[in-house]
Amino acid sequence: MSVLEFFLYITLANWSIVTFLWVFIKKNSQIYLINVYWGAGYVLLTVVAMTLDGLLEDSSFHVRQYLVNFLVTLWGIKLSFFLYRKEKLRLEGSAELIAEKYERDLKSYRKRFLKIGLLQVLAIFPIISINYLPGTNSLNFLDFLGFILFSLGFYVETKSNNDLLAFRVNNLEKKRILSAGLWEYSRHPNYFGHLLQWWAFYIIACNAIGGAWSFFGPLIMSLYTLKVVIKDTEKRMLANVPEYSGYINKTNKLMPGVFQGGNQALDVIRSVVPFRQFTAFAGLISRSENKLIKKILISWFCYFYKPNLDESINKRPQDFRSFNDFFTRKLESKSRPINQDTDIIISPVDGTVVSLGNLKEGTLIQAKGISYDVSDLIQDQALENTFKNGCYVTIYLAPINYHRIHFPFSGTIEKTKYLKGNLYSVNASSARRIKSLYSKNERTFTFVKSESLSYGLVSVGAAMVGSIVPFWNEEINSKKEHLVNLWNQGPDEDLLRVSKGKELGYFQMGSTVILLFPSDIQIDKNFLYEAKPVKFGEELINLSERK
């Protein structure tokens, strides 16, 4: 029996179970059981995998099988009990909402029940690998490393889940946020512990014959947790609990932020991580025009991020040459109308405002408790005084955002340049941990001047951002050295005059834009504020309110 047949047998077995469960739920109106099955299903799948191996392959069992199957069973039973208690607590809520959810689930048997059945089998592939071809009949370093990681994840998930249940019992009718214990350091420590255990199973599976290829199991689980489970949870929390937006701004999403404000030990670790090599490899893959690679990457991205292709010039995934071509797609002009009022500075990008305010003696705020200097950011003594007591707006572009950058105001390009640096991630958690993050990262600087306004625009590179491509580049898939030269040389003279909304360039992955303004510009913080989503073409600052 091949591993593919083994996989198909287990998939059919799990689909049979969830189908029976659907019929039972339909008859007894106990919709919460599908959520409880998320934990119990892994126990059943482990038993099925062990049974199939014993009946169809090898009746003897290796110590590694006993270890992993015991850990999965322990974890699955514990998770099932937690989910049962959680669902029972939730059922004490509105009967109308429960009935509505129940009806919706019955209509989506294929989309929910069968999807969960398949997702469970894909996620548990490391355990399938261990049961199918377990490897040597003795434990080694990877087994012990996996066991330690599993134990850590088991503790983190159990403690955070228990704290969450206790909090909900005591605050059932109160719209409060749990921010104590492990929840002080992560918005989802339970899911962090959950994923630690899956990667622990994969580490142990690396001892199985061919087990290293089962990495897609914990990878799919990680992506599903981040882009579906956590995304839906946070969307619901933001809608129902006003305080949650503040909790988001000060707490990491998944990885516990125990090193807020920077840490020398972490700086040492970051210095040896090959971010540039990872980025180069990611850029190579993203530019590949191989149909299979392109289809897989675009399909996965669309599944997890659900970009609005109706705004794009090309509206079908197959119309793009590569994943990079899809990622840097151009929009139809009507999808982003530009505010043409001569007193309005528009947003140059789609994104989220992460910080804004006045530069006090050339100092900008990166995150709470972390500041950096404009002199380090632009490295231009002649222009430092222009912005020294001015103001700034920092906008973060997430992967789902449109990734082209535009001029926020008309004028003439006076200077452009490339500034060498690292390629650290620039997401919210990195901004809270890495001192002078934007000044440390690779970036480009553009200075534009007109009769009524001078401003600077800094485009900050990041991990997996292959390049920042200027509009005067005429080559496809240009090498990095060529783009650096273009930024340092600037555009030809006939291209120096730019209009509001004209394209400046584009990021090849998500990153950050920082706008710098002189001292006479006033930011209306009632209109523009942290965490506000903005779109290219919309009003950002009104010049009629100048000091």
Structure description:
With 547 residues, this protein is of the alpha+beta class. The chain is built from 19 helices and 15 strands. The protein has helices spanning 3-28, 33-56, 63-90, 95-107, 109-123, 125-132, 141-170, 189-205, 216-240, 244-250, 264-272, 275-286, 291-305, 323-327, 374-378, 381-387, 428-433, 437-440, 480-489; strands at residues 344-346, 351-358, 363-367, 370-373, 391-396, 404-406, 411-419, 443-449, 454-460, 468-470, 497-498, 503-507, 512-517, 533-534, 539-542. The protein has an eight-stranded antiparallel beta sheet with strand order 11-7-8-9-13-5-2-14. It has a three-stranded antiparallel beta sheet with strand order 6-12-10. Helix 6 runs parallel beside helix 8 (189-205) and helix 7 (141-170) runs antiparallel to helix 8.
Keywords:
eight-stranded antiparallel β-sheet, 49% helix, three-stranded antiparallel β-sheet, 547 residues, 19 helices, alpha+beta, single chain
Shape: elongated
The tally of helices reads 19
Main beta sheet:
8 strands, antiparallel
Strand arrangement within the widest β-sheet reads 11-7-8-9-13-5-2-14
Arithmetic mean pLDDT = 81
- Give me the count of strands: 15
Question: Helix proportion of residues, in percent?
Answer: 40-55%
**What structural class do helix, strand and pairing data support?**
alpha+beta
Radius of gyration, whole Å: 26 Å
Strand content: 5-15%
The N- to C-terminal Cα distance equals 77 Å
